[in-house]
Design brief:
Structural class: mainly alpha
Distance between the termini: 33 Å
Radius of gyration: 15 Å
Order of helices and strands: HHHH
Helix content: over 70%
Number of strands: 0
Length: 96
Amino acid sequence: MTFPDWLDEGCAWLAQVQKIGLSMAGRELLDRGRGWQRRGELLGWHQTGRLFQALAREDAPMSERAAALLDLAAWLTTARRVLQASALAADLAGQP
């Protein structure tokens, strides 16, 4: 799995969680998130793994889980924008 693919998968997963809410996330969605977390850690994104663990801890206060969700969204959105800016810069550098 490439880094951009991993980002896309994470953003899609976050969108589903945000749509249905943390308290209603369900086991299947959390299991998919755990798989995504493990793939991210293989890519070196350990901080996102820690944020996911905080988000997925069902016994944690909802405020902690919501904060982890927002932090994770910020990490992924920023990484996606950096990749897009990098691709744009490469395209511009290749133009006469």
